From TrEMBL:
Biological source species: Bifidobacterium tissieri
GO biological process terms held by the UniProt record: DNA replication, removal of RNA primer; mismatch repair
Pfam families (alphabetical): RNase_HII (PF01351)
EC code(s) of this entry: 3.1.26.4
UniProt protein name: Ribonuclease
UniProt cross-references to InterPro entries, sorted A to Z: RNase_HII, RNase_HII/HIII, RNase_HII/HIII_dom, RNaseH-like_sf, RNaseH_sf
Cell compartments where the protein resides: Cytoplasm
GO MF annotation list: metal ion binding; RNA binding; RNA-DNA hybrid ribonuclease activity
Amino acid sequence: MATVVPRPAPTLDREKTLAGKRYSLIVGFDEVGRGSLAGPAMVGAAALLSRDIDEWTVPTGVADSKMLTEVRRQSLLEPLKTWSAAWAVGSVSAREIDEWGIVYALGVAAVRALNEIETLLTTGDHTDLGVGAAVAKAVSRQGISPAWHGTIGDIGGEEPGVRLKADELRVAGILDGPSDYITPVVNSFDAPELLKPIAMTTVVKGDRQCASVAAAAVIAKVTRDHLIEDLAAAHPEYEAYGWSSNKGYGSVPHRAAIAKHGPTEYHRTTWHLC
């Protein structure tokens, strides 16, 4: 019988290195829904305050979200939100993806998430696009509109309210993957203006190596899954597309339904759908 070698757990090594470079806020990013045929793409962000570095610990059970079962991801959601100083999931609609292309759209989603985190930590309030988890749940249950591109986020930890002064912000980000699609979008017309710029680092398989990225991945994955499940429940007329099980991705039944019934207003119509 082959020996199964346990996969190393994510660490906080890169986050601590960035904190040592005098960044006051370290933010891990990961995406979900890039390859989906329907529904929004989303980028999760999980932030840590460098001043709390002596209290940082790797959350128990955190790992690459793709290696976790659905039940395990769900059980980690609330602990990871609490572990983060603040968290957010930015989104872009299928319409925006069709207009901008997926890479630029993901950058906009990431900046929306970061803007929410910066605003929450420095003012205690949400951005114009932002809502807390409780409000988002109510909106989600009604079924999001095709043009919805909101940001879901909240302050984590145990200290509500303002956590940083704006002039204390010095932000570093860690993005899963080989390419930085966030920096080119900062200061663009389509993305919100950040309170402070961000210095980005990319890490291939970052969700396996960096705890903040792994946390962002789980938060984003569970958030989007719930959103798509609620969308399917709110639109029984679209049952044939199977969104409750495929989460908008290109399963064989999903593609067959598109071929038979055509795309809905939630599909990315510039993509090869069937």
